[in-house]
Amino acid sequence: MVFVPYVLPGEVVECLVLREKKSWCEASLLHIIEPSSLRREPFCPHFGLCGGCHYQHMPYQHQLALKEAIFRSILHRQAAVSKSRISPIIPSLNELEWRSRAKLALSAGKKEGQSYWGFYKAGSHEVIEISACPVLKPSLRRLVDPMNSMAGLIKYAFPRLDGMILEAGLDGRARVVIQPESIDMGQIKALEQPFRELEIPVAIMNSKRGLVYINCFEELCFYKGPLCEKGLSTLPGTFFQANLQDNENLVKKVIELCNKAKAGKILELFSGSGNFSIPLSAAGFHVTAVESEKGSVESAKKNRDRILSSPERLEIIHSDAVRFFSEVPRKDLFDVVLLDPPRQGAKRLSRLLAESGIKTVIYVSCDPMTLSRDVRILGQWGFRVKECIPFDMFPQTFHIESVTMLSRRRD
User: Could you read off the pLDDT of 163-176 as tens digits, one per residue?
Assistant: First the structure.
């Protein structure tokens, strides 16, 4: 079996083998000899060079079918999940202009004017300058050119830069979050006037000192729904779903599964700014939400106090998820544990959950491989998948979001 990126089933191509194993190999595409009738012209001039998108060369319905097949195959082969337990993939509301959050890197140009912002080239740390990006929200695309005009100044001010995050809320407002590894307030002062002249909403922060400069609105609205009509908001640089329009379907599904599980008390780990915990509490559940990132905890508490008529239903705890769960004296007090871990999954936590008295786990995942690994760990202790729902929240890419409910087998 040969894996070649950017090739459709049935196509005849010329490729170069890069890595070879006993039963499979990886190759790069050199030339398409006989294209598929499904092949279409990509929307973006950078497609195939930029590492952000993978499927622009195929129609959206074909992307959905391919993703669903890949997701089913991974869960079935890696974790022995019955295909009957896996629902059809839920399409995105928007094929393009869906991304409300994106991280850009700064090129290594050494002279003012040579640097630029862009995305990494596929499989490397080379930065590709972006002149267009059809998956970005228009309000974010409008920030790229003015930020490129300041790239040299920013590179001079912050030689060690972790990157720049573009963020847009549901109301269309957008901002830039710059993340230098070290902070020099004198350099920040020197950038104030250029930012003001270009009318760029900007925040500057790093992991040690947090937010040190802001010239724009402090919070962005990332979720609105029937249970949260005032909207949930978050501080600069804190995580929220990149696809805000599809996030509402994700939240609805989590609430639906908690109702099916008859959950009175829920423990949410990796709870962020309250994307699930606030709507769940508004729906009548008692939730203990645990999050390690300080800015997200601050945002979650503000959201709770501003939105919930019964804030006592939601306890928000600033702690590492593994440490907190290890120290909980009565884990069996919770009816459901809700997980929304980062891409690397929750391997150690899955073992702790498996050894506890927890009966139901609802797992929100953005990576089928780490989800399969953790489902396999839980399965060794009697957990079985009841429902697994993939979501296409990242059109044009191979990334797949999903929600999985597992319940412990009763002997």
Answer: 899 999 999 899 99
Closest-CA residue to 302 (of 359, 353, 233, 352): 233
Domain 101-168+174-216 has CATH 2.40.50.1070: yes
Residue 121's φ and ψ, nearest 5 degrees, are: -65, 145
Residues with Cβ within 8 Å of residue 241, at least 6 apart in sequence:
100, 101, 222, 247, 250, 275, 393
Q: Which amino acid is at 91?
A: P
* CA separation for the pair 76, 79 (Å, rounded): 6
3-state secondary structure of 47: strand
Distance CA 314, CA 200 (A): 36
> Per-domain residue ranges for the chain?
2-39, 66-93+242-408, 101-168+174-216
CATH node for 66-93+242-408: 3.40.50.150
Q: What is the per-residue pLDDT across 253-284, written as a single tens digit (0 to 9) for each?
A: 999 999 999 999 999 999 999 999 999 999 99
Residue type, 148: N
Say if CB 40 and CB 95 are below 8 A apart: no
What pLDDT band is residue 109 in, cutting at 50, 70 and 90? low
